[in-house]
Hints:
binds guanosine-5'-diphosphate-alpha-D-mannose, seven-stranded mixed β-sheet, UDP N-Acetylglucosamine Acyltransferase, domain 1, 2 domains, binds magnesium ion, Spore Coat Polysaccharide Biosynthesis Protein SpsA, Chain A, elongated, NDP-sugar synthase, Mannose-1P_guanyltransferase, 18% helix, Nucleotide-diphossugar_trans, six-stranded parallel β-sheet, GMPPB_C, alpha/beta
Amino acid sequence: xxxxxxxxxxxxxxxxxxxxxxxxxxxxxxxxxxxxxxxxxxxxxxxxxxxxxxxxxxxxxxxxxxxxxxxxxxxxxxxxxxxxxxxxxxxxxxxxxxxxxxxxxxxxxxxxxxxxxxxxxxxxxxxxxxxxxxxxxxxxxxxxxxxxxxxxxxxxxxxxxxxxxxxxxxxxxxxxxxxxxxxxxxxxxxxxxxxxxxxxxxxxxxxxxxxxxxxxxxxxxxxxxxxxxxxxxxxxxxxxxxxxxxxxxxxxxxxxxxxxxxxxxxxxxxxxxxxxxxxxxxxxxxxxxxxxxxxxxxxxxxxxxxxxxxxxxxxxxxxxxxxxxxxxxxxxxxxxxxxxxxxxxxxxxxxxxxxxxxxxxxxxxxxxxx
Length: 370
Ligand code: GDD
Ligand code: MG
């Protein structure tokens, strides 16, 4: 059984000179319909809300004072994490009534910030970055802002960040079709508090499209910390499935997970019938049922879902309480909470089924044999 997030305590030497801010106010549109009912950082990954993995990484670096910048479904975070004491942390929440964007969200939490050094994280990044090393780079260069960068095969979906030979950032190009380098913004920054004070208050501001280009245009020192650790933005179904499987298999690090890891993770109260095959980092949520001879490969099955006998689920997310009928096939799909997929249906290549929808037996096929 995986630990619940109540089992986690920070392990680093406490460092009160640094506070962390996590941006969790996005709507998670690319993960709909799952994000209709839960904000993206609260979706279960390897048995706990995704945000628990990020919080445990911050705690492991000795940073215990964390502010969540919330907007969409703001109340869900405090309901789950409370004041953070169960994690050995001090959590506070600042909610935007209207979304202020990434830069506006950082500016909006300023009243909670007392430290001079502020670490900011996008709330959907799974990674193994050494947070202390990012802070060391920031302090030794004396920069106004330090940005954590990683290298990816296709930078177009990210912020592209060229640097010079001294490691100084020379430009910030958010989601450009013509990226000049494979270095991208990994969604972790170190700010001097005074730089956050300079961001306009009370209006939407993008840190990527406005704050960073503005600092560079004024000749301010923005530095890069490049590393090669595990890194994945969990914002799309493909990445969510892959990141979840990597956590289950131990490819993605998380201080929140302990014990041996393997091809699958089955949580308490779940039932797996004889002959079912669970591979590829499959995770089965609490109280879920997997029928005889079902085959799950890289499947993310949320709590209470049912996969009937002989069904096949590959690289797909099955929402809370959804049912996949006998001998149905779901490949690269997202099935919303409580949806009911009839026997022998085939849902392939990015299919998304909205919550509560019923598809009758044999109702969707990609082939003519039944
Ligand atoms: N509080 C608040 N308010 N948070 C927000 C808002 C807002 O208005 N808008 C977005 N966020 C949060 C999201 O919840 C997420 O955790 C983070 O900010 C980044 O938003 P995404 O929507 O996930 O952005 P992205 O993945 O397209 O791009 C960003 O991340 C990439 C790395 O993962 C950018 O920062 C890119 O430059 C970067 O490469
Ligand atoms: Mg993202």
